[in-house]
């Protein structure tokens, strides 16, 4: 592929991105539940870790309207409202919408809920079969954190999902060990396809969450052998709707045997780290943000050390820190919303 052909294809994809991102944005949905700490305290949207290409985004929980609890119920409702977009391939959604029959859309909702239930069943089977330790991030995730990162990636970073990982996780065990999700965009100069591997850890302890997160994502960011499985999935299941021609062209970027995969793609990371934080005090979210703000520097230092320990160099990563009063409440509220 020539550079001219590469630019032509990437421009086609750039024009297609707004279509892929149709739907609610942050200010119409997640903002009612999450407060941008940096925006409140420093009037900036994110912070950058010097010299390690990492943007930090930190959001704290708001209270519900009655100020009787934090907005776990509201957050669970938003995740529930988006489960079709998260779990069902765009091409299948487009086909259902094209019929003009609302019963098909309702059918997709039921299918999406079943995928979550199947995911939990398969996940428990994998844990038992492999006789693995009861890792907090595997055995209890409930997948709510993965969907939350999906929404933040699309609404905040404007990065569309490249394929429905949930659609694959319900069909076997192998996909539990790869990236939690894959998003795609363009580099800042529009010269390469940016491939974002995502990793989510929802733990009680932030230090464990950061450590496990970076250990999991490092082989993908360093383009080690583990990445081949993800590229194979993209080659088979890339999901940008029913634009067959553009899909075929983009798949060339995900073939490790083609020069396009190395010359015209750049691997990047997306991380969500959710954890228990005891600095919440009352239901004034601006005050809570100010209480939490002094803690962020230590989180950044731990993340920086983790990148160094895992030999992650010169790779762009966006990390979302989500301090919560109780991660178990987040998990269980979402599962209850799904009727599980």
Describe the structure.
The chain has one domain (3-337). The protein is built from 16 helices and 7 strands. It has helices spanning 3-20, 37-41, 72-81, 83-87, 90-98, 102-129, 136-139, 144-155, 165-169, 206-221, 227-237, 244-251, 259-263, 285-292, 296-309, 327-337, and strands spanning 34-36, 47-49, 54-61, 181-186, 193-202, 265-276, 317-324. Strands 1, 2, 3, 4, 5, 6 and 7 form a 7-stranded mixed sheet that branches. Helix 3 (72-81) packs across helix 16 (327-337) and helix 10 packs parallel to helix 15 (296-309). It is globular, with a radius of gyration of 20 Å.
The main pleated sheet reads as: 7 strands, mixed
Tell me the total number of β-strands: 7
Helix content: 40-55%
Radius of gyration, taken over Cα atoms and rounded to an integer in Å:
20 Å
- Apparent shape: globular
Oligomer: single chain
Quickly count the domains.
1
Tell me the structural class. alpha/beta
Strand % is 5-15%
Number of helices: 16
Distance from N terminus to C terminus (CA atoms, Å) equals 49 Å
Unreliable stretches, pLDDT < 50, 5 or more residues?
Answer: none
Mean pLDDT: 88
Order of helices and strands: HEHEEHHHHHHHEEHHHHEHHEH
What is this entry, summarized?
With 340 residues, this protein is an alpha/beta fold.
List the helices and strands and how they pair.
Layout: H1 3-20, E1 34-36, H2 37-41, E2 47-49, E3 54-61, H3 72-81, H4 83-87, H5 90-98, H6 102-129, H7 136-139, H8 144-155, H9 165-169, E4 181-186, E5 193-202, H10 206-221, H11 227-237, H12 244-251, H13 259-263, E6 265-276, H14 285-292, H15 296-309, E7 317-324, H16 327-337
Helix pairs in contact: 3-16, 10-15
